Structures are given as structure tokens and as C-alpha cells.
Amino acid sequence: MRGKVTVVVVLIGSVLFYAWGFWFLYIQASPDLRFNLNRQAVPTALDDVKLLPAQVGDFKLTTGPTQTGPGLTAGYAPADGTPFRFSVTPFVDHQSAMAILNSASNGCKTTPHAEAKIPYVYYECQGKQGFTWINDRYRFDAETSDLELALRFVNTYPY
Questions:
Q1: CB within 10 Å: which end of the chain, N or C, has fewer?
Q2: Is 0.85 topped by the overall pTM?
């Protein structure tokens, strides 16, 4: 009798472990919840161009930085060459940057997190996904057609 109980307990435990493993490996949180909030503060003496470094993790600068109105825009790509747009816009202060956060992706499906430590918005628009976030007086915007690529970039970027 003890042997049968042991076998049943081991089988039930195995099924439960398999179900948990499947959930852990294959069911991912929504993209907006995978945004990394642990970011460095932007140094006050940092030149705006240095906010667009030549390399961020395995992403290399492919175009730019170019002046676009008050901000700068650059193109990045990983080793596979998938294009990626990244821009940095300075504002007078944090409140000015926050005021523009919710209008960062007009006409797109947005998921705002304005109450977060680093306020951000995840958006989906016409086959593209992206993140817009505020750090100090800067608005950062990253957009691409590959969601996992966007997450990898924004979670590697230090600011």
C-alpha cells in the first residue's frame, strides 16, 4: 500500500512540476510589464549626443544621430540587422516631459504607467511596437516592428 501511495504522490508532483515549468518557460507577462525600471539617473553635465552611444549592448548605431526638432534620433540594429529607431528629446524640466508622455503615440493603442518610478508608455501602432519613458527631463522613445527586439534594447539602455 505504501508503494502505491508513493507512486501516486510522485506522479501528482511530476504533473504539477511539469505544469509549473510550462507556465514559467512559455507564458510571458505582457510586454509593458517586462519594461526594466532600474535605470541610472541622467547626469546633468551629459551632452545630449552622448545619450545616443555608438553601442548599447549588442545594438550598434547604424544611422545618426540627427537633429529632429528639439531632440535627436538615431537608428540602431543588432547583429541580424533589424532596424530600430531611438530618439531622445530634452525638456525644460520633469513636469514638461511628463505632460507630453501620454501624447507620445497619438492614434495608437497605449498602455500608460505614469505612476511608475520611471514613468513610461508601451504602445502598438500599425505593425510597430515601442516604449516611451521619462527619465529626469528627457523623453526617450524606442520603436521597431519586433517586440522582443524593443524589449531587449530598452532593458539594456542605461538611462
A1: N
A2: no
